[in-house]
Design goal:
homohexamer; 309 residues; 4-stranded mixed sheet
């Protein structure tokens, strides 16, 4: 792709007012575990000899999905936006459970999290997915710091339902640690584990945590990077993606079932956030290269925007 | 144990000058994985039904070894000392490898770390051991923040030996992140993973990392909490524990083999640290309750002190 | 007295939470003139020849009552408590009056303070007692600064009763000077002379001044170091010392005469202070070595605590 | 005295450049005890009845010598000059000694200071003269704070000669306390008592202390307010007062005896000061009303100026 | 004129309390174009040869009217007063219009300002009169910075009457730029051009601007330097100059016509200012040398003071 | 021009690293008077009636050359670059001289500047051209502040040649005022008048002033916006424009005459600047829309870059 000078100037003239508007503002980005799922956990033990003979270096690949995402976050940070990354890791947790011979149990459709499952989730989220994102950002030049809600006790959680075990709800978010990291020019990357006052950890839905953090930080934007093109008014019609919707409108769609499945917690987090101090919330298609950059810095409409009128 | 008022006053009169001396000074404490090994990783999958019926809460026990350690660190922080905790986790890594059916490989007596082993080590260190220590400190009232050398790229590492795979040496430590956390009243807890500029992670010996961090922070003290009573001049004679030794003297003991096995990296880290700006280094018996508190705030001699004359 | 390590650790584990709680908090300590009376003013002129031949150095004795008091104040300062010392000097004033051939006059039981008596009081309080306390603190390593209410005009006083001459009441306290000294790490030592806008000085009851300063500084504690074991519910029964009492309860004891004589102004100051922003007030036995340290940093009950429920 | 507007404007046009030059600069003023001697210590005990009936209020008289001096200091402070007052009190000390029946002893012409004499000197200087000056300044609107060299240990002293007892020399001056008071807009008033590390106090010559403080503060000016018209080249010829002289020239006058008696320590302090960082030193006639103001803020030549060429 | 020392001291004793009172306070001084009119714009083109042969240097003359004014402003700045100069330039604008062959047009007695007239006014005010005042202040040692209301958009203006063209009213004053300049020790000199949001400039009455700036800065004083002796209660009686008047009283004089012509906008600005946060407003005779200095720093009554009772 | 999303993202990915690199860096831009010449000074007096009837508003036109330039400067400021604008105004000065009937005189090819010419230059530069640029920037959202070297005396100048009259050379630049304005987020716009210590103003070549300011500010870049496409190696060959050249190479071109006429002072300023702390200097074609934006934020090569190897 080659552009002439006038076309380039035009993009810059379009983008810079957005830069000015968003500089110094917090943008919370929920990055889903699905996007990371394909390649990150080694599926099979490699023979030790292979490692010895020619270690196949796990360098972050700059042209993969994570690479594009990390590049966008780093570029936003470079122009003064303050991104906070929140991630899940469902597929990766399931993978390790399987390898450890752990049989999943369910209660009313939700996964029961016993003590061992919690340990596995914590190891995968904090010790694997979080690390991969931190590294990808560091390689792109944005100094990232991983943390979970246990660090400095910043997410206080409580048990959701005894039948679910260590599945938690957010009780409160103390934004101090995240604010300090942002002030020092760092990019916080948050794994969604919280703890209660007694030190008991809980696994919490990442969409919900992303919303709660955005509210605690009075973020400018809350962005969900997903593998769909946006919120549809008709779940079966791909052409029904909405460009913009209000919190009320979104909740109506949930109530009528037009929005369902995995989109429900995202929709609820969007609606709650824009009613509690977040300027706008977005459901974007993370599969579009640089969708984050385009959403923030151009007039392009990518996915669905939720606002409080 | 009940003391009369005069005896209590005597302890305080003895302790307070130490408080004054160490307030605002950094003390790097290496806390070994052995001390944590017994109970922390659930050995057996619990039946899901048990979790559902009566979740056996994994609350940090305040009277265990980790509980005593966390209490000491929190108390030192409360009187203005700036503790930094560095930890390993060898036994816990081995445990998960076994459960995943991973066969260890060795090269000249050292474990070969292929890509999967690195992933396992990272999950255990960052996602399990580090979390347990952070939680224990939070419960004791010291706000702790876990991190690894990948966070903000603060430990740059390089491959030690191609035959060992992803085993790293410390190239440099950038103390900025740790210093910021200390300034904000937080207790940094460091898992000893580093990365190179391309984002490749390495597992690094925790004793070495503790020493390198102490040097980068110009720490007042570097303390190794071990399961021995100190450095012996005769490895077979428990009564030969030295109260004090110089860096030269310590290296002589390594050279003659009087100090051997797991004590060697500790001894080398001690000797290097006191020659590079750390005031003193200590090998303490972590099994003695409150050994850390006694070493810093009383006239008691606990273990061995290394100084540069 | 020798303690084993566990006992020492126990004292520290008990004390440090108090250190954390009181660090940065102001503690106003009234130190009575009686405690100083015995040795401080030279009773007899020494022959000049003796001074010339062998000057008997007036070095502060570290094992006397003043020495113990100064050591406690210095240790509290070392752990971050902000002590302010307020002192009287009645016996010393009487002594100099006698030597100058001055006959005391009384009005309704209170000493009439004519201009010369005021000059004598000022010289003794500011130029003698205050100096001795400042020196004792300096020798213990706490940099002390003596002042009276005339300095920076920080205590504004007014005549109490024309028949009493230059005996004053506190009109207002401007805490700025004391706060500045505290911020700079110094220990203020206050002689209880105030002045009015015209520059007229007044001698003021030291218990009252101590209370007024504690209120103006919103002190954590107001402590009276006395030569009794505490407030008694029955003035004739030494076993009736109260561990704790409310402001109302204390005023009842004054009203019924159970508390009398020299304890009255202390009791009133305690009751007024806890009703005006001071967390607690204490009447301690200054004759118990390190009573100040024990009261602040241990669970020991020393004397009587006054609180507002 | 009534001036027309043009004449007034002329004075202001002359004065303001001096204000600009000296604003923020330290001026150390030695104020002699002689000036205070006449009225300040009540010569005779008043009958108590008189005090009761009609207390003859000791309000600072604004038209006396001390009043004029205090007004000048307050005015200089008001235009941003930073005055530090250092005072002696010889006559007042002698007076109290006499009243206490103390017989003076001398050694080689200097007063022997035994322990009781030291106590008397300290009481008079710190508790009487210092207080009177502080009060006079407060009444003029300059917030003054009295201190002696014992406060915050700011003057370290040592014994001059065993035969003289507690007569001290200045070992060092730590200007921190004085600098803090100046920064807070206060006027320090210094009584010339110092102490050694063991807490032993010494009486020190006030001229010497004034010079040492001026040097420690790198003062703009060191001013001696005396009862003579300046330094004379011929001690018997009142018309030989010098307008200006160098440090060398001044020391020559001392060597030849042209300058003698009480002027010698002043002359030495002036010469030493201008050789150690003080811009100029002055011997002024304190009996001339507002001599301090005229010297600093007009072209008038008052007394003698000492400079280092 | 020669004064004795006592007379000089008297002036200083009178002046310094004013210095203390006004230090750090803002004084807005309107300096009229009439005072500058005589000499500042070269009346006739000089032959180029003259310039080449002997350039008659236009150095600011220190004994002219502008020189005296600049000296006063610089002296006030030197004692900590914060002067802001606002100026007009009517005669100078008229002069350049004449030379450019521009015929004045009037509407209801006011000059119609077409685009070219505005350009001329802007060039003369910003590029000529403002520069001359800045230079005069710089020569007197006060660093001056010229600006107009266009700079940093600090004066927002709007069209007064379409029939008048580019004659503006003050809509709002943003004092930020002026405050920054004052904080940096500079003297702002303001030309009274404002602009609207679209960038259209307007010429605004300088008296009105001076009042609006004084209000926006919550100035201590607003001073009009004029060529009359003050506000008269009878416009035809030079002996009827008022020393003091209230805002109401002044508006009555305007209403009755006692105050007329060019004094009206000044009177209105005075009355409005003292009702909107300015402590006092003054109409002084700028022809009296140092009238500004005398008004601020002496008891002399110069001209008329307007206060809000 | 319409771009697809991928092309837009590509421009942003290209631009943001430049934004990061230049944020907080100073870029001095010389904007020539030629670019402004056409429309800014009204050529003919408009009839007053026209102004009255329908004032043809002189709003800055956003699509003119000045509009594009102002937009670029405002956009650069919005992304954190610190632009400083320096301008000339030769054509506008000549225009006003002509209208005032002033006959130009020359000496060795340079214009003789007598006192009246200086007045005219000052009025045009400071009161006309500077105002127009300030307004254009304000309209684009960058708060601009105009100044000349007389403000705060920031450019000290001296006479170049008596035969030239008031034509000056730069003696020194004090960057304090400009730095303060930059710190406060303002865009300084500098008219190139300087003054000497006596207050005499001089007109100075704007290219030279731009270079001197860039050096005093240790600017990242010095940019000349001209009406040519760059520096040519052959002045007669438009295709010989150089993309990059060293200071030595550029001076060689001046020496050989390849660079001549109006490009000479620009070339000299470029060469001097890159040898005195300015990172690079540029000669750009100001006629290309957004040339400033393209040069700083894209890989496009616009004009000639001068660097010191």
């Amino acid at each position: 792709m080659s552009l002439d000078a006038a076309a380039k100037a035009g993009v810059l003239v379009e983008a810079i007012p957005y830069v000015r508007r968003f500089a110094g503002r917090v943008v919370v980005v929920k990055y889903g575990g699905n996007a990371l799922a394909a390649s990150t956990l080694p599926a099979e033990p490699e023979p030790a000899s292979a490692a010895t003979a020619s270690p196949a270096r796990r360098v972050v690949e700059s042209d993969g999905v994570l690479g594009h995402f990390a590049e966008d976050v780093a570029l936003l940070r470079a122009v003064g936006v303050l991104p906070v990354v929140v991630h899940g890791g469902g597929p990766q947790i399931g993978d390790l459970m399987t390898r450890l011979g752990k049989t999943p149990a369910f209660h009313e459709g939700l996964r029961v999290t016993d003590a061992e499952t919690l340990d596995i989730a914590r190891m995968v989220l904090v010790g694997k997915v979080n690390r991969d994102i931190v590294t990808a950002l560091n390689v792109c030049g944005a100094l990232a710091v991983g943390c979970s809600g246990e660090d400095a006790g910043f997410i206080t959680a409580a048990e959701r339902d005894p039948a679910l075990g260590y599945v938690g709800d957010v009780v409160s978010v103390d934004p101090t640690l995240i604010e300090h990291l942002l002030q020092e020019g760092l990019v916080p990357v948050v794994a969604t584990i919280g703890a209660d006052a007694a030190g008991q950890a809980y696994n919490i839905n990442a969409d919900t945590v992303a919303g709660a953090i955005a509210e605690a930080l009075s973020a400018e934007k809350l962005v969900f990077l997903t593998d769909v093109t946006g919120v549809r008014s008709d779940r079966d019609d791909p052409t029904s993606v909405l460009q913009s919707i209000t919190a009320d409108g979104l909740e109506d769609l949930v109530a009528t079932g037009a929005v369902g499945d995995g989109m429900v917690p995202k929709a609820r987090a969007c609606a709650h956030a824009v009613r509690h101090g977040v300027r706008s919330a977005h459901v974007l298609d993370g599969r579009v290269p640089h969708s984050l950059l385009l959403e923030l810095l151009t007039d392009e409409g990518i996915g669905t925007m939720v606002v409080e009128p």
